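Shipment paperwork, digital attachment
Item: protein structure file
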Amino acid sequence: MSIEQLKYIVSVAKYRSFSLAAENLFISQSAISQAIIRLENELNIQLFDRSKTTILPTKDGEVLINQANKILSELEYFEMLRFQTLKKNKQLIRIGVLKGIYLPFIAELIKKSKDSNWEIIYEEADSIELAKMLEKKQLDVAILALYPESLHYLQNTNYVHSTPIDLYLFMSKLSPLHTQEQITPSQLHNVTLANYAGPFTKWLLQQIQKKYGPLNILYETKNIDLLRQSIRNNDAVSIETGADLLHNHLIDNEEIVAIPFHHDATPKFHLGVAYLKQDENSLSQELASKIDQLLKQEFISVIHPQ
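Attachment content:
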């Protein structure tokens, strides 16, 4: 039994659906189903009645799910106490960074903090999870994608639009599109897509398909190596952000190419920095301002060189 499995059964019970629970946890339906089946086999009981359209807990399942809720609440409370205890001894800043983005200056910030009277605790997550953590005061500062889905959760949070998120189509040099100066949505109907299975990419593809019709999506994955291999082999192309251009050795070595992708399916979205409103810790605002400057420098020097 794992904490992740407890989160899964609580989520399925909440949404009464494996697919909705998987969507809200940003994992595949098969992954959540298999994890729960393993837990049922381990406990030798059935947690959910799957005979109807609406998934409901069994009597045994209700008992364990109620207990799982208590355990998860206690773990969250324990984490809060742990953080408060650490803060008594040293001024701590918890910074969350969008998973998958490589920003070398973060390591330098962490290194510098070790030699001062404050220290950075580093976490990675998707943008929606980072926004939720900020609202729960589990983070002080976060670097995340600012778009409708994440902005929905930033009710008590200040944020700045550090840099627009430009889109690119990553492809093999064998692709017939690799000589194009830019790609438009109409050209996507002639290619096979493989994409990173994050909430931002899922939202973006939904918006594009709503306006321009269904796309041929081979698969979605959180395995970057698998995704890049499909692109290099010319099995698929992938919609990526400008952040994926940063320090990308495959592009630097010309193993794959990135062509700007232009569309009008969504309003402009940004990569930005968020921090809590009325934060008693002025260091959070100071750090957010510093990160904003560093992000702008990073994108100007790498994506928009002079």
